[in-house]
Design a protein that fits this description.
Number of strands: 7
CATH architecture: Roll
Order of helices and strands: EHEHEEEEHHEH
Number of domains: 1
CATH superfamily: ph1033 like domains
Protein name: EVE domain-containing protein
Pfam families: EVE
CATH topology: ph1033 like fold
InterPro entries: 5hmC_binding (IPR052181), EVE_domain (IPR002740), PUA-like_sf (IPR015947)
Shape: globular
Organism: Mojavia pulchra JT2-VF2
Structural class: alpha+beta
Distance between the termini: 24 Å
Helix content: 25-40%
CATH class: Alpha Beta
Radius of gyration: 14 Å
């Protein structure tokens, strides 16, 4: 299984909005590499929802619930979207500062490619981030 990190500006759409709505179309992605990643997503894969802007922290977990499809609002087959569904709010948000300070995460694409809004997360990084989320850092 592939895991993901999806960035969102909480003033536009937060994890709490996703919880309220239950599911949503994950749109607004226009970076070519981020779109490439979206095109590879599969139903059932999990994603960490990361708030950008002033918050800069992981807030929740979501599930990919559709295959990628052309964004119906744009009429452009190259601009794809997926549907995501809220799974759970994290017990303890993990900040960008915590991620940067963790030696196990130093090569994580969130840090290497800070402008990409869709980031793949390896199994190792996923497990490490879950440890931070659950407060078990050792």
């Amino acid at each position: 299984m592939t895991y993901w990190l999806l960035k969102t500006e909480p003033d536009n759409y937060s994890y709490f909005d996703l919880e309220r709505d239950g599911s949503t179309v994950w749109d607004g992605v226009n970076n070519p590499l981020a779109l490439k990643y979206l095109r590879t997503m599969l139903i059932g894969e999990l994603a960490l929802i990361y708030h950008t802007g002033k918050q800069r922290q992981i807030m929740g977990v979501a599930e990919i619930v559709s295959q990628p499809y052309a964004d119906p609002a744009l009429h452009d087959a190259k601009r794809v979207v997926v549907d995501v569904q809220a799974v759970r709010r994290v017990k303890q948000p993990v900040t960008l500062t915590q991620i940067k300070q963790d030696s196990f995460l130093r090569d994580f694409d969130l840090l290497r490619l800070p402008r990409i809004s869709v980031v793949p997360v390896s199994e190792f990084y996923w497990q490490r981030l879950l440890e931070l989320i659950n407060g078990t850092k050792e």
